[in-house]
Amino acid sequence: MLYVPIVSVAAGLKTGDVHQNNEDFMADSFTIDFQAHGKVETGDLVVFVGDDLKPSGAVAAQLGPKAVDLIAKAAAAETFKGKAKSSMSIVVPADLPVDRLVVIGLGGEKDRAGLDFVQLGGLIAGKVNGKLATVVLDLPGIEVSPEAVADIALGAQLRRYSFDRYKTKKDDGDAKKGGSLVLSVADPAAAKKAYKSREGIEQGVAIARDLVNEPPNVLGPQEFAARAQELSKLGVEVEILDDKAMKKLGMNALLGVAQGSVRGGRVAIMRWNGGKADDSPIAFIGKGVVFDSGGISIKPGAGMEDMKGDMAGAACVVGLMHALASRKAKANVVGAIGLVENMPDGNAQRPGDIVTTMSGQTIEIINTDAEGRLVLADVLWYVQDRFKPKFMIDLATLTGAILVALAQEYAGLFSNNDELSERLTAAGKATGERVWRMPLGPEFDKMIESKFADMKNSAGRFGGSSTAAALLQRFVNDVPWAHLDIAGTAMGSPATEINKGWSSGWGVRLLDRLVRDHYEA
Q1: pTM (global) more than 0.70
Q2: Residues in domain Cytosol aminopeptidase (predicted)?
Q3: Which of 115, 178, 456, 515 could pair with 450 as two cysteines, CB 3.0-4.6 Å apart?
């Protein structure tokens, strides 16, 4: 990937030193429960107000007039105006048998109309102290359905994620410190049922975050493939292709990237068969460069440690397959990830080399740091040839150019199919994992023509994201296809209410929503 972001990572371990199940990684004492509205007698009590500083009628009746008056007086003293995402805490509130009364603002009508319940759940989790907190989900001017309650619970869980397994001394202020969150709702049974389908999504996001956060000396191609293999516990069929199998298939573009490392490459094929037996599958493909030094075209040293995250596309695919299998999605799904390490040893490929891909097309290597498209080229061809999918979506931290265009707010979307693009855009709006369609046309395809081969792997700075996508398009045939360039959204991610870490697990919720809305029987 032609991009070097900035953030550090813990090191000091040898390959294979650490391996645990994801369940161990996520284990802490934080729990979420659902109960009917009723009197709260201990811990934190969380309520909501609009910009008029008034809680809902039901909450006001529960708190009593003195407590409602206390909110108004405290708001005046604290200059709290009930704006969206603002909050105020009242310690040992008079006439209430709780430790703290936490008041969260929802803003005006416009703010409330566009409320993101997942983000609200993260906001709530960030405002409580741990131990026990009861959240009265009777929001002024907002209908809170069981699905909305489930999204709030999901957001709270996502906020609690942290990656500290290599710290010998834990931070006392870390968000992951246990406790219990009780959501007080009108219909606890319905909310609990709705949340059941969110648990696999939360776990899938955590899996993707864990994989991206892992240090590269622990997570090589073989170790990554072993993590994918663990999905077999959920009924996912997993097949691992090693160097020998890939060489037999002619995956020379992928192998060309891998040959500079002492750690061989792998391709992991994951199949979830939850649909009808005769239904063609849908397919998700992920770039999995576990560490990208740039190869012979080596990157600058500053920030190179972040290149452990150049496998966020593959991490998303593994997390997505976990989510789909956990909720027993009624769809046939293929997940395929190409796993390599891009290193500059004496056996590494050089600028000027020409490789023959599995498709038979040839690629001239101009820049060995434009390696992700070589990995994806062979995996895309393999998937479309073997599985004949309804569509393919690939995810890759592919270009720094996409950050220049979209910063860290959107993933770049390139596609040969309008319907698939529109559905991805809608799923992005629904989940907050937003995509923006970028140009893909014959002009960019012409820019990657080579004097010596069928194409070259880099066409220079201008239109770098589009020329990379143009190369990938040559390996999809006529299959409906979308490419998501996630270099800005999946690692070094901006902090949100549901993500305070370096890796966001971006794409798991987006693609689960896409499948749920359009591709289940």
Answers
A1: yes
A2: 367-374
A3: 456
